[in-house]
Amino acid sequence: MHEKQLAPIGRLIGLIFLVALSCRSAVAQASALPPLTIPVGLEVCDGGCMNSDGNLGTWIFHGQKRGKAQWSRGGQVATVTIEQYDYQRIVIRREDLPTSSSPGFTAVYEGTMRNKRIEGTATAKWPGHFPQGKPPGSVQYSWFATVPLTTCSPAGTSNAQDAMEIGEKAARFRQPLSTFSCFLIAARKGDGQSKGIVGLMYRDGIGTAVNYDEALHWLKAGAIQDDYNAQLGLAQMYEVGIGTAADPQQAQMWKQRADNNPAIIRQREQARQQAQQQQAAQQMMFMGLAAVVEAMTRPDVYVVY
Fold first, then answer.
1. Rounded to an integer, what is the distance from CA 158 to the centroid of its chain?
2. What's the number of domains the chain is made of?
3. Using one digit for the tens of pLDDT, what is the confidence trace for 272-281?
4. For residue 133, what are the domain limits?
5. pLDDT (tens digit per residue) in 80-90
6. Three-state SS at 79
7. Which residues partner with 142 through β-bridges?
8. What count of other Cβ atoms lies within 10 Å of the Cβ of residue 73?
9. What pTM did the predictor assign?
10. Of 201, 207, 208, 257, which is most buried by a Cβ count within 10 Å?
11. Quick check: 78 and 96 in contact, CB under 8 A?
């Protein structure tokens, strides 16, 4: 074989050697990283969320391979099963429940972890839908997810707003101990809404032991700052006599304060616009973050706020 013929072969062998060396380096780097552990949950943006419609998915695993998922809009609920979760590949299978707004919908989410964020493509099937799909009934779309921060500490959380945001995520992902810890930090920093939530958690033993003295203290503090949930919770304690002597006059006063609270008035106005005024006006219930926290006492109830 002539020297001119050997030159391209030599270059090809050298290229193969460089590719192999690069692959070996990538594998070595991946093996040097700590193993990925199944997270408490994932905040998932897929479908319409990729077009900024705000329909964020809350996927709850609690360190297990099988979990539950719910989206903030549209009534979609599903079981989600992790089939692979490492630095090479992440695969999660979704199966919507019969009670979902999209029963029969299934999808396989594939992606990779990049800078603490999972990015990839989902392949979905929904018989009778996606007529333009190839094949009909199927579709592909992009998705990404992040592992939510659900813990905070007095030293690491600088202000009440940060503690509240982390506490909200902890509540959505069913982490009662972290929820209590974060809202207690925010309450001690003076936030009225957090004071009401802490009071309810002490009263009902959510994320902490039942302590009616502390419950009364924090509910009073939140109620004075005009927090609706604190006012309603305080009225209930006086009405029933929880942690204090029953006091119908105090119960009625705080119930009226709650009933005329600007927050509940705004909620009723929104309900009126949605033709739900009667239901909103007749039923007094905890709202917003307090509703998310209270839902943790009922394992089959998921509230996304």
1. 22
2. 2
3. 887 654 455 4
4. 41-146
5. 999 999 999 99
6. strand
7. 121
8. 13
9. 0.74
10. 201
11. yes
